[in-house]
Write a structure and sequence with these properties.
- The protein is mainly beta and 471 residues long.
- Strands 20, 21, 22, 23, 24, 25, 26, 27 and 28 form a 9-stranded antiparallel sheet that branches. Strands 11, 13, 14, 15 and 17 form a 5-stranded antiparallel sheet that branches.
- A hairpin with a 6-residue loop joins strand 26 and strand 27.
Amino acid sequence: MNHPDRPVPTGRLAVALLAVLVLLTAAGVAVAGTGSRSTGVRHRGQTTTTPVRRDLVCPSSDADTSSFIGLLPGTPKGGSVSAGGRPLGLAAGAVERVGPPGRRALTVTARGAATRGIFGSRAMQAGGMTRCGSPRASWWFVGAGASPSHFSTLELVNPRSGPAVVDLTVWGRDGQVAGAGLRGISVRSGGAKTLKLADVAPSQGNLAVHVQASRGLVLADVNDHLVDVRDPNAAPVEEWIPDQGNPSRHQLLSGLPPPSAQQPVSAGSALATGLRNGANLVIANPGDRAVVAQVRLSGKDGGFVPKGLAPTQVPPQSVVSVPLGDLVVDPGTSVRVDADGPVAAGYVVPGSGDLLHAVSAVPWHGPAAVALARNGTGTLLLTALTGDGSATVTQLGPKGSRLARTKVAVPGQSTVSTPLRANTASVVVTATGGTGSVAGAVLVDRGSAYSALPLAPVQTVLQVPEVRPAG
């Protein structure tokens, strides 16, 4: 409590504030890349810088994959982009396919001006897609498995200098999962490490996984698999699990496939019990007390609680699965979870020929971009979290030509679907106004498989606090 009649220790306070600002500056540079001071643009105590380097890692796969790397339109000239150590000629607005197809993780490095607009996706030759991401300290995944019929592999990639040290925490339906080898995992500089959850944390049911680096920064990704254990010749169906972001009281899951793809599987299926009911909402509570979560659906006519869907109680440090497939009756539906405590959430759609994980959608500032594979069609899904919102949507061809630019209005608490042109190589979405925040994803239909790609902001500059010596 502050007392107006008590003198403030100005000297110690100034030193403490300076220390906090120094730590914030170092954290900002560590997350976004090494920064160099630009022309000294200052606003509200911050300096705008251009990072010297930014790494983008496209995860590995058990199948052959290709990466699609793009630069935002208007990215200044003078930078460079390399993929796997080889120069990549990439013009502003264009998307390049990096080949030949491979299975190992691919590190893309942007330098100079190219750091202000780099983004990318990775696609299996016939199957799923995921977003390429930058290294950071904390990652959350919901809907993983560690059983014979539903199993996941975790990959840790360290593209930076110096080793990284990582700890894992895993939760299941019966609480936190104990296992050997979950702490102090070392990943050498420029190296990668893959862990099978069934080896380090064997358990049944859907799982939540938290990756926390205690030293360095890593790219973490989870490759999920379903397999019919009764058939010795059955090939696993696989898909990447998107990072779901930090736990919070409000979660929005976007990129759900059409209702026809979410129905329960056959009664004789050998899938894990928690997946037989079709699409499942998976809610993880990493906290020390129980939370109550209310599930809502959002469609073109607004948000609503499905009839008969009561609030869900999630015990502390555990995971609960809620079957929702038969409640999603309209295309272009998103799922919102409102809880009285922080939760992480995922949406799993299993099947004998396809597996989909919806993405955690969060509001953003500035342009968000998604790179698309050459085959398949895309649908942009935008949800206004509160009041009415709007966004400008620009579709670009492989060489950066503008195919379409439209403004999409999104009524409050509604989800609006916008089909993308068949030859769209990238879509750039900029939230433009209204009283409500807009979030969403791109649902990709590649004929035999659906995938959801998040609308994540492309960092165009690095802003760090101005630190001035007290004087």
